[in-house]
Amino acid sequence: MLKQDYHIHCELSPDSTAALDVVCSQAYRLGLEEVAFTDHYELIEGVTARGSIRREYLEISREKLLACRSRWEGRIRVVFGIELGQCHKQPEAASQILASNPYDFVLASLHRVAHRDLSLFDYREEDCEALGETYARELLEIARAGDYDCLSHLDLIRRYPAFQGVSLRMEDHMELVEEILKQVVRRGKGIEINTTAGSLAEPLPSLAILKAYRRLGGEIVTTGSDAHRAEDVAKGFDRAEELLREAGFSYAARYKERKPYFVKL
Ligand SMILES: [Zn+2]
Ligand SMILES: [Zn+2]
């Protein structure tokens, strides 16, 4: 059983109201040993880091997270994480954020292409082939040069079209995907299996991508629910564990002070 959820959003994130202690209680009840809070920080082209999210956000997050960690010590380990969106758009701001906070775990995400959030496209009207390629190229830039520990939800661009009945698969851009995975492996980084709280038929990324990662020498995989509500913690983890095994992994990764270590499945 996977006993760590490495992608959770709480009340500190702009898009969640889940109270820290309620999330920890739920995780403890489920028998988890670790929870990583990875609240959003979006870096958006043309918008200053301070302008995109209020300035005190990171300081408040740090204080509350570290206090929460103390409260739960001995019962569950609270991992201090962040989900940095589009770090390649403002690398200096990203470095500054990472240098001024004692993170255990940094997820790098790509939530936007062509100046728009992926959730805002009408995929029935888009050239999905071109959009998929742009997405892959931007992610490659992050994989190659970004400061991160794991790439989150590698084929996230599959998610929103699926809700609109459109199929957009990163397997159609496998050459670029393999290039991304090679960069991850070369730099000693990892990827995650993101169960999106069970909202998709299959977690992200697909089994084909996980297998390619394994074949290319990838070893580091974390598992995260991407829960924005306490009841979604660890949702879909049975399938995540199956996928890990099917792709040839017998370990999952955890992090401390940005260094990975492994636990047996
Ligand atoms: Zn995300
Ligand atoms: Zn997330």
Could you write a compact summary of the structure shown?
This protein is an alpha/beta fold and 265 residues long.
Strand content: 15-25%
Oligomer: single chain
Question: Which CATH C-level class is it?
Answer: Alpha Beta
Helix coverage percent:
25-40%
Domain module tally: 1
Question: What is the name of the CATH superfamily?
Answer: Metal-dependent hydrolases
Structural class label = alpha/beta
Helix-strand pattern: EHEHHEHEEEHEHHEHEHEE
CATH structural fold name: TIM Barrel
Q: Could you give the order of strands across the largest sheet?
A: 1-2-3-4-7-8-9
Uncertain residue ranges: none
Rg is 17 Å
Bound molecules: zinc ion
Main pleated sheet: 7 strands, parallel
Structure in words:
This protein has 265 residues and is α/β, with parallel strands linked by helices. The protein has one domain (4-264): TIM Barrel, CATH 3.20.20. The chain has helices at residues 20-29, 49-52, 57-72, 91-99, 128-145, 159-163, 174-186, 207-215, 237-246; strands at residues 4-8, 34-42, 77-85, 105-109, 112-113, 116-117, 150-151, 190-194, 221-224, 251-256, 259-264. Helix 5 (128-145) packs parallel to helix 7. The radius of gyration is 17 Å and the shape is globular. The model has no long low-confidence stretch (mean pLDDT 94). The structure holds zinc ion (ZN) (2 copies). One zinc ion (ZN) binds at residues 83, 109, 111, 152-153.
